[in-house]
Amino acid sequence: MYSIDREQQATVRDSFSLRGIGIHSGQAVAVTVHPAQDGGVRFECSRYPGVTIPACFSSVRSTPRSTVLAAGDARVATTEHLLAALSALGVDHARVVVEGEELPALDGSAVEYVRAILAVGRKPLDRRREPLRLRRPVWVSEGEAHLLALPAPGLRLSYVLEYPHPLVGTQVASIAITAERFATAVAPARTFGFLEWAEQLRARGLALGASPENTVVIAPDRILAPLRFPDEFVRHKILDLVGDLALLGRPLHAHVIAVRGGHATNIALVTQIGTDAARQMESV
Q: Can you give the pTM of this predicted structure?
């Protein structure tokens, strides 16, 4: 791991590209991350030249098993793993060009993004970072899903995952998100799904590219791959949450506690935090 100066904004030192299959589209796709001096993280779809999609909560189009960002007719799906890696490793600005309309699933985790960012390195910029510090608790609830963000000196994510499956049950994890901790304890956690979901998801046009190479499949009586962590499923939920929180466009200082959350509730919390922050700036 390289040392990260959290006081200075940064971009990547050089471009890098990764190719693979879109986990939902099933299509061959690619992503190239270029350095940028300002503007935050911005996506561009090769099919819609000249259209830029800012990586911010106002760009969210939908959350069907991933976070889809859009501007006009241009859209890019499954953004959360790359955004999590960029955010956790302290990359504030980047131009992300996507061939297709979805980022590659790779191995179902963020570890290849982490390796690529570490390989090219991080280039500090002559601007200070301004973390978003909560002034009050913020929470959202939808059915049995609940997220609460509390003021804190840094970013800690605590997650309670529950599934009525004997091989999953309840998993709980609480992780302070630093570059090194993210890279070693969160980024390798892979996407997972239940075998019984497959037919229903594919009928909805989702998970068309899901395979044992990018998804940990949970069958009724066994898990069809060796786990990287005993609690890999809840760690993957934390990975997704890091990526969705990156849509705030600034490092968040908060302790976020999630119970049975998902992309929809993640984005609801991010929207509430971001809207509150904008109001506070207007009142200054």
A: 0.95
Pairing of strands 155-163, 252-259: parallel
Token pair belonging to 259: 């119970």
- Determine the CATH number of domain 8-128: 3.30.230.20
Structure tokens at 64: 């069907």
List active site positions: 263
Question: How many CA atoms does the CB half-sphere of 221 hold within 13 Å?
Answer: 0
Provide the residue ranges of all domains of the chain, joining segments of one domain with +.
8-128, 132-283
Distance from C-alpha of 44 to C-alpha of 69, rounded to nearest angstrom: 11
Convert the pLDDT of each residue in 241-269 to its tens digit.
999 999 999 999 999 999 999 999 999 99
* 132-283: CATH superfamily: lpxc deacetylase, domain 2 (3.30.1700.10)
C-alpha 179/C-alpha 85 separation (Å) is 9
Q: Are the C-beta atoms of residues 65 and 138 closer than 8 Å to each other? A: no
Whole-angstrom distance, CA of residue 284 vs CA of residue 281: 5
Let me know if the fold of 8-128 is the same as that of 132-283. Answer: no
3-state SS assignment for residue 196: helix
CA distance 203 to 208: 9
Q: Which of 109, 126, 115, 67 is nearest to 248 (CA)?
A: 67
Q: What is the pLDDT of residues 194-224, one digit of tens each?
A: 888 777 878 887 778 888 899 999 999 999 9
Alpha-carbon span 32 to 18, nearest angstrom:
7
